[in-house]
Specification:
Radius of gyration: 18 Å
Catalytic activity: hydroxyacetone + NADP(+) = methylglyoxal + NADPH + H(+)
Number of domains: 1
Order of helices and strands: EEEHEHEHEHEHEHEHHEHH
Largest sheet: 8 strands, parallel, barrel
Distance between the termini: 31 Å
InterPro entries: AKR, Aldo/ket_reductase_CS, NAD(P)_OxRdtase_dom_sf, NADP_OxRdtase_dom
Mean pLDDT: 98
GO biological process, one term: methylglyoxal catabolic process
Family: Belongs to the aldo/keto reductase family.
Organism: Azospirillum brasilense
Number of strands: 10
CATH topology: TIM Barrel
Helix content: 25-40%
């Protein structure tokens, strides 16, 4: 596996996502993926499983410094005092003194962006996170975050899969020296039966899921999150670094994007998308 470098951060190109994952599944799967060689785990305050993630990493026996750990501050905690308190609570649950990457989970106009970014900078300066970033930001918010922040923003975690064209966000991230962290890579399972993807997969002796993950990490500056509650699928998801997609295959997958491809756009949270 390679690492993606972004504004001083070195991020394993494939991470294990824990969105909507129960505590027991986290306790079972995180040690398993770490045993398989994965070194990047992603959680969030709102997922309700930070405690289990912390316990699972501890149970793996790996030194803390070998696991790239990301969590996200929820929108109700963006006021400065709440922000600091919530980060301390997250660290206690995660059984660590620091995370490797701390993100703003969604935009929240109720708190000035300058205050949100200042809080990110403050917890980084206090040593509670090595790097900072954002999630679900559009280009306008991303540009403003960069302008406001003293410390570099290293990633924007966004929905990204073959049916959603994110070329504008990729261009913005690259312009700022950032990575894109892709979630919802499987597009709610749509990729598994897509004939373009299954044809490429059959030709390469891989699965459609492996092809999509490979398509993501083969793009400059893109980190992919995978999620599964099955041991066999976890091993399969990791087996994407022993092959490459041709330019024609990459283009064919990019060609699957469509105007209605976005899946995640919750009312009251989502910005005006690019």
């Amino acid at each position: 596996m390679h690492n993606v470098t972004a504004n001083g951060a070195s991020i394993p190109a494939l991470g294990f996502g824990t969105f909507r994952m129960s505590g027991p599944d986290v306790l079972r799967m995180v040690p398993e993926v770490l045993k398989l060689g994965l070194r990047h785990v992603d959680t969030a305050q709102i997922y309700g499983n930070e405690s289990e993630v912390g316990e699972a990493i501890k149970a793996s026996g790996l030194p803390r410094g070998e696991v790239f750990l990301t969590t996200k501050v929820w929108v109700s905690n963006y006021k400065a005092d709440d922000f600091r308190r919530s980060v301390d609570e997250s660290l206690a649950k995660l059984r660590t003194d620091y995370v490797d990457l701390l993100l703003l989970h969604w935009p929240n106009e109720a708190v000035p962006l300058a205050e949100q970014i200042e809080s990110l900078n403050a917890v980084q300066a206090a040593g509670k996170t090595r790097h900072i970033g954002v999630s679900n930001f559009n280009r306008k918010l991303l540009d403003e975050s960069v302008r406001l922040s003293r410390a570099p923003i290293v990633t924007n975690q966004i929905e990204y899969h073959p049916y959603l064209d994110q070329s504008a966000m990729l261009e913005a991230a690259r312009r700022h020296g950032q990575s894109i962290t892709a979630y919802y890579a499987m597009a709610d399972g749509k990729v598994f039966k897509d004939p373009v993807l299954t044809d490429i997969a059959a030709r390469l002796g891989k699965s459609a899921a492996q092809v999509v993950l490979r398509w993501l990490v083969q793009q400059e500056g893109v980190v992919a999150l995978s999620k599964t509650v099955g041991e066999r699928r976890a091993a399969e998801n990791l087996a994407i670094f022993d092959f490459a997609l041709s330019e024609a295959d990459m283009a064919a997958i990019h060609g699957l994007a469509r105007p209605d491809g976005r899946i995640v756009s919750p009312d009251g949270l989502a910005p005006v998308w690019d």
